[in-house]
């Protein structure tokens, strides 16, 4: 157990399972879970796509950074960050100072399968054929990985189509941060 851990921040591409793993991790550790996008929507009283529409990407990224700085001050929390969060400003350096940052690394094929299984509508993916979607994932991941790899911990994840696979991934995260409990 690492007695210094006060927060775990999960990063990775959309569809990597950050929210799924974060919720289960928080449940097992008996701490609060925050999804950064949900936190932003609650604080701003509007949905992320509306913020993008009103403020543009730069405006959204400013809001995102401010909200990251709020939630990453809380203790005894698991935070699931948006897929783009690590790629802007000094967010990765800040997150690494605030807690244990875990990159949930998945292959483009696993991400594709997760996104196809996902129930939520993701505006960036609408209207893409399977081939276009896989190419889009590969292209974005190739750019974003330089930021993701700054995380203190990297956990390679399987396709999480079953509860057992989710549990396996949570255990890999716990092992990576050497944590049984948050203090």
How does this structure look, described?
This protein has a five-stranded parallel sheet, with helices on both faces. Helix 1 (18-29) packs across helix 7 (163-177) and helix 2 (36-44) packs across helix 3. It starts with 6 loop residues before the first strand and ends in a 6-residue tail after the last helix. The longest helix has 24 residues, at 48-71. It has helices spanning 18-29, 36-44, 48-71, 91-98, 108-117, 130-148, 163-177; strands at 7-11, 32-35, 77-80, 100-105, 153-156. 53% of the residues lie in helices and 13% in strands. The protein has 183 residues and is α/β, with parallel strands linked by helices.
Walk across the major sheet and give the strand order: 2-3-1-4-5
Tally of DSSP helical segments: 7
Percentage of residues in DSSP E strands: 5-15%
Percent of residues in helices: 40-55%
Give the low-pLDDT segments: none
N-to-C SSE series? EHEHHEHEHHEH
> Could you tell me the number of beta strands?
5
Structural class: alpha/beta
Largest sheet: 5 strands, parallel
| Beginning-to-end CA distance, first to last residue | 10 Å
Overall shape: it is globular
Mean pLDDT: 92
From the alpha carbons, calculate the radius of gyration and give it in angstroms: 16 Å
């Amino acid at each position: 157990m690492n007695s210094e851990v006060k927060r775990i921040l999960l990063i990775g591409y959309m569809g990597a399972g950050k929210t799924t793993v974060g919720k289960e991790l928080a449940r097992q550790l008996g701490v609060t879970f925050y999804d950064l996008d949900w936190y932003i929507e609650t604080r701003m009283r509007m949905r992320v796509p509306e913020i993008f529409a009103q403020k543009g990407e730069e405006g959204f990224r400013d809001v995102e950074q401010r909200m990251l700085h709020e939630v990453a001050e809380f203790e005894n929390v698991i935070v699931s960050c948006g897929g783009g969060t690590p790629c802007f400003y000094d967010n990765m350096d800040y997150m690494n100072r605030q807690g244990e940052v875990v990159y949930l690394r998945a292959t483009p094929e696993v991400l594709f399968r997760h996104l196809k299984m996902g129930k939520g509508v993701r505006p960036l993916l609408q209207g893409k054929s399977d081939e276009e979607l896989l190419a889009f994932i590969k292209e974005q991941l190739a750019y974003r990985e330089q930021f993701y790899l700054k995380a203190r911990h990297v956990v390679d994840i399987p396709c999480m189509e079953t509860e057992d696979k989710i549990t396996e991934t949570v255990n890999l995260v716990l092992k990576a941060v050497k944590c049984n409990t948050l203090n």
